[in-house]
Design a protein that fits this description.
Strand content of chain B: 35-45%
Order of helices and strands of chain B: EEHEEEEH
Radius of gyration of chain A: 22 Å
Oligomer: heterodimer
Low-confidence stretches of chain B: none
Strand order of the largest sheet of chain A: 4-10-9-8-7-5-6
Helix content of chain A: 25-40%
Number of helices of chain B: 2
Strand order of the largest sheet of chain B: 1-2-6-5-4-3
Mean pLDDT of chain B: 91
Helix content of chain B: 25-40%
Structural class of chain A: alpha/beta
CATH class of chain B: Alpha Beta
Number of strands of chain B: 6
CATH superfamily of the largest domain in chain A: Type I PLP-dependent aspartate aminotransferase-like (Major domain)
Number of domains of chain B: 1
Chain lengths: ~400, ~90
């Protein structure tokens, strides 16, 4: 089991006081804090290796290119992809989904086709498909969610038809922490000749991920939720699918050759090889370096240990929250099928009141829809408060959080 | 005479069906602002000496001693600015 007290020493921000209280950071599903190893790696890049990558002969550029490519390789190993050709660096999960929607969806989907999403999706795995449906003419169908927040697999199976070409699914719900059986859904998708995209924003930082074992076609995730910097994320795609896809954006880096034909007055363009075909323009090089360090940090701890420790935290939090009469926990309480995300409400108070009260004690949680309005509609709640945990959180912090909530409930 | 911007750092509409507004006061002026609000608004309830439930000209809101205030039943950011201007200026 990991030692959170040892880990906390790597996170300078956790020493900060807000409103005279040492902070308790329970907003990890929104973004994680950064260990000094990641901060140092970014600093070292700018102090010692900064240059633009590729197509330069000077030493700094070669060093920067090497680091950036190593970052792709490190991430490929982290999720057990075949290599860096299957790893595209993007701004985050949202951009990864949009890349697939525009680059694959725009060219492959036509009127009469269907794509299937679920009602528990984050808006970023739903809105791009709705936007494109309006221009491409395909239909978007929704699989139901059970009252306890788990995915209704029967509904999902019923919605699949011979017209279904694509399934989009969160691995872990950003509202309830429910872990979906993506391997099962991937099998189902492939049996019907459809592809599957998994939103791994809430799973990759917390669970062991093996894309080959899951047999998923695309995986999207963000660096900043897994101890890395903001503005860097990943799209994993099976190589043969990525090779067939058209580029998402045009610019530098994504082309091999642009030759002007004076007779036709046009340019002919040859795309660069993977993954650069999808990384137009100067990329977020330092972000890639930071993300590589974040992945190494998690690997040193062991992602299985991360999962086990978070389950322990979640179990304790649910047990303690159940003691509070005025608190309602939404979603499942069984921690074996969920990650460390707990949505809840306090009787008579809005989620924002709860968050503001906790903030008075230096406790950071999130309130609102968490970019998943359809799921809140299904729960018939106006919004929810959400506590989410990570490797540096402790049982003691959870006890403090529950004590403060109790004080609020009694006030 | 100053403006509301001298006192308020930011006003944000909350996420969720409630559509409340949260105003955050400038840190260096928060104690002065809280004092002024508590003098002018009618105190309905206090919770743990951390939150005050208040009304001013028929508008109810909650004031946090950390320098934040949450308004309900106001439609626009301009409404929030107006009520804060009435209290603070």
């Amino acid at each position: 089991m990991l030692d959170p007290l040892l880990i906390r020493q790597d996170f300078p921000i956790l020493k900060r006081k807000i409103n005279n209280h040492v902070i308790i950071y329970f907003d990890n599903a929104a973004t994680s804090q950064k260990p000094r190893q990641v901060i140092e790696a970014i600093k070292d890049f700018y102090e010692n290796h900064n240059a633009n990558i590729h197509r330069a002969v000077h030493t700094l550029s070669q060093e920067a290119s090497e680091l950036y490519e190593q970052a792709h390789e490190e991430i490929a190993r982290f999720i057990n992809a075949n290599g860096m050709e299957e790893i595209i660096f993007v701004r985050g999960t949202t951009e990864a989904v949009n890349l697939v929607a525009y680059s694959w969806g725009c060219h492959s989907l036509k009127k009469g086709d269907e794509i299937l999403v679920t009602l528990m999706e984050h808006h970023s795995n739903l809105v791009p498909w709705e936007i494109l449906a309006r221009t491409c003419g395909y239909s978007v169908k929704y699989a139901e969610v059970n009252h306890d927040g788990t995915l209704n697999y029967e509904s999902l199976e019923q919605e699949i038809t011979h017209r279904t070409k694509f399934i989009c699914l969160s691995h872990v719900s950003n509202v309830t922490g429910v872990i979906n059986d993506v391997k099962r859904v991937a099998k189902l998708a492939h049996e019907h000749g459809a592809l599957i995209l998994v939103d791994g924003a809430q799973s990759v930082p917390h669970l062991p991920i093996n894309v080959k074992n899951l047999d998923i076609d695309f995986l999207a995730f963000s660096g900043h939720k897994m101890l890395g910097p903001t503005g860097i994320g990943v799209l994993y795609g099976k190589k043969h699918i990525l090779e067939e896809m058209k580029p998402f954006q045009g610019g530098g880096e994504m082309i091999k050759e642009v030759s002007f034909n004076p007779k036709k007055r046009r340019c002919s363009i040859t795309w660069n090889s993977l993954p650069w075909k999808f990384e137009a323009g100067t990329p977020h090089i330092s972000g890639g370096v930071g993300l590589m360090e974040a992945a190494r940090y998690l690997k040193r701890i062991g992602i299985e240990s991360v999962q086990a420790y978070e389950e322990k935290l979640t179990k304790h939090a649910i047990q303690r929250l159940k003691e509070l009469q005025k608190v309602t926990i939404y979603g499942p309480k069984d921690t074996s099928a969920k990650c460390g995300i707990i949505p809840f409400g306090v009787e008579g108070l809005s989620s924002h009141d709860v968050a503001l009260f906790l903030d008075s004690y230096g406790i950071m949680i999130r309130s609102g829809f968490h970019c998943a309005q359809p799921l809140h509609q299904m729960f018939r709640i106006r919004s929810s408060a959400r506590a989410s945990f990570y490797i540096y959180n402790t049982i003691k912090e959870i006890d403090r959080f529950v004590d403060v909530l109790e004080e609020l409930g009694n006030a | 005479m100053g403006t509301i911007d001298d006192y308020v750092a930011r006003i944000e509409e909350t996420c969720g069906e409630e559509k409340d507004f949260i105003a955050t006061f400038k840190y260096e002026k928060k104690d002065e602002i809280i004092k002024r609000i508590l003098e002018k608004a009618k105190k309905e309830k206090s919770m743990s000496s951390m939150i005050f439930e208040l009304t001013f000209k028929g508008v109810s809101f909650r004031l946090y001693v950390t320098g934040k205030v949450i308004f309900r039943n106001l439609k626009t950011k301009k409404d929030v600015q107006n009520i804060l201007a009435d209290i603070l200026l």
